[in-house]
Design a protein that fits this description.
CATH architecture: Alpha-Beta Barrel
CATH class: Alpha Beta
Shape: globular
Largest sheet: 9 strands, mixed
Number of helices: 9
Number of domains: 1
Order of helices and strands: HHEEHEHEHHEHEHEHEEEE
Helix content: 25-40%
CATH topology: TIM Barrel
Radius of gyration: 19 Å
Structural class: alpha/beta
Strand order of the largest sheet: 1-2-3-4-5-6-7-8-9
CATH superfamily: Aldolase class I
Number of strands: 11
């Protein structure tokens, strides 16, 4: 995946944010003992893509990859194998195939618009919102984005505003539409980002967030007080999000993508960090800590140290497959 950094992100890097730099500047990879075997550990293309642009991994939920295009390229991206590629551009026929599949599979009641970034390609996103609205079996729509972090000024764009008007209309009359924004560090929440958040809230849109544990971003392995430092960073992040009216939804273990080994935090460090955050944050500000099962199926919720003195090294996915961390 090529490096792509917006002027907004470049300004934060130039101002000295290591957390932003380590997410977006292509670094020389650190040699690691463990090398992950695949670029697609979640099997999106190999197992769960019945038609181009659609991932149907969970029975009642389908994910549409609106495109492979983003405002900025996060170097830890689970889809780094395809981001920035025109191969993900959807033709009219592709879009029809996706919509027909969803119509035929009436068990699907939630559709996630993802990518890439749906707000970076607003024309395609607008089309999907129009086509999904009349499908009676679709009750909920979720839109995943990082564009407020990549380029908050882009939300002045007329076409993005039209998409938001469509979302506002759906929320009022048809389907609840949730917008989920990806944040990893407090440095990402600048005044211009806050203005986008308030604008979205004024439109009556429910906002959620997701975060990923990332070495060099919200965890620093060479620090003697590595756990305490990470707890402080994430406490500030989730408190800020909570106060802005965003519900922290998930915090993920970094996916086991080939080439991203240097971003992965030791598992038991993450467990201890989450245990400390449980004692600091109110419930609405504490995200669910999950592992997206590599080679399996399901977002596995990691148990709290409040219940278990020792967390096991293996778990079962939702199909019963045993997976080693």
């Amino acid at each position: 995946m090529k490096e792509r950094i917006t002027p907004h992100l470049r300004a934060l890097i130039n101002a000295g944010s290591e957390a932003i730099k380590n997410q977006f500047v292509k670094m020389k990879q650190t040699i690691t003992k463990k090398k992950f075997p695949t670029l697609d550990p979640l099997g999106e293309e190999e197992k769960y893509s019945p038609v181009k642009g659609l991932v149907h991994k969970y029975t009642r939920v389908a994910l549409i990859k609106v495109s492979n295009r983003c405002g900025g390229h996060c170097q830890f991206c689970t889809r780094c194998r395809e981001i920035g590629s025109a191969d993900g551009d959807l033709t009219k026929e592709d879009i029809i195939n996706i919509i027909n599949y969803i119509k035929e599979h009436t068990e699907i009641y939630e559709v996630i618009l993802s990518g890439g970034d749906p707000f970076f390609t607003p024309n395609v996103t607008f089309t999907f919102l129009e086509l999904l609205e009349p499908i009676k079996s679709v009750k909920v729509i979720r839109v995943g984005t990082r564009l407020p972090v990549h380029a908050p000024e882009s939300f002045n764009n007329v076409r993005i505003q039209e998409v938001l008007e469509r979302v506002e209309k759906l929320n009022k009359f048809t389907n609840p539409v949730y917008i989920l924004i990806h944040f990893n560090h407090p440095d990402e929440i600048t005044p211009s980002v806050e203005r986008v958040i308030w604008m979205l809230r004024q439109k009556g849109i429910t906002l959620l967030s997701q975060t990923v544990f990332l070495s060099g971003v919200n965890y620093f392995p060479n620090n003697d007080s590595d756990i305490e430092t990470s707890v402080k960073i994430l406490d500030i992040l989730f408190t800020k999000l909570h106060c802005l009216g965003i519900i922290p939804y998930y915090i993920y273990r970094c996916d086991y993508v080939n080439g991203l080994e240097h971003f992965v935090v030791p598992f038991f460090k993450e467990v201890k960090i989450m245990h400390k955050l449980e004692g600091l944050l109110p419930g609405l500000a504490l995200p669910q800590y999950v592992i997206d099962a590599p080679g399996g199926r399901g977002k596995i919720r990691v148990p709290s140290l409040s219940w278990f003195k020792h967390i096991p090294h293996t778990f079962r996915d939702i199909d019963g497959k045993v997976i080693k961390i």
